From TrEMBL:
GO terms for molecular function: DNA binding; zinc ion binding. InterPro entries: Znf_BED (IPR003656), ZnF_BED_domain_contain (IPR052035), Znf_C2H2_sf (IPR036236). Keywords: Metal-binding, Transcription, Transcription regulation, Zinc, Zinc-finger. Residues 52-107 form the BED-type domain. This is BED-type domain-containing protein. PANTHER family: ZINC FINGER BED DOMAIN-CONTAINING PROTEIN 4, ZINC FINGER BED DOMAIN-CONTAINING PROTEIN RICESLEEPER 2-LIKE.
Amino acid sequence: MSNSREDSHVGEENTNDVIPLEGVQEVEGVDEASRDDDGVEQRSNKKKQGMQEPSYVWGHFTKVTINGELKAKCNHCQAKLVASGHNGTSHLDRHLKKSCKAKGVPSVLDSLQKTLSVTRKDDGTSCIETREFDPIVARQKIATLVVKHELPLNFVEYEAFRDLISYANPLVKNLSRNTLKSEIFKLYQAEKAKAMALLENNDSRVAIPTDMWTASNQKKGYMVVTGHFVDKSWRL
């Protein structure tokens, strides 16, 4: 090997002396690790290059290495799932919301659905507190938004709207126009029940005037019916 090398460099000035290192092996970087009682290597929860780690998912899993394969160990039920980067984290999210809860793990979703809210006091100061996220209330508020501002039903399918909701709270599920239609009907039934209960408890007469107008942008006619009465506190 040395003869061929010398022959190939005949006539050339050798400016660099190469000193061969024998018996020296390259050492690869080793992550900090520890082992639990089961002999499973606990790897540090550092982000690997090219692997995104949603904070709430990895707050419920620990990365472990079993037989040379990276796994995600559930901190609640000790189940071990695939944790390689190309598999993503959707299966870990499903495990928390379905499988883990079905095994009797105490209220995993409660810890996932706590959000921070800012409350303003009368003196002008503000305080931050945790509150429970209710997906039913979220759907009702979206339905109220669409009705109050006369938005089309497919508004909830707008890409920009869904991107905004996902950014504001990833726990809010996207609605379709059919689901929104159902939510609006529920809202109508609830408001109708409130109005009927108010009229049933009223002992005075009720005046029912009507008003009609035409929307200039839609060229459609509308009629609104209003009920006026005096309640028990003599308020109109």
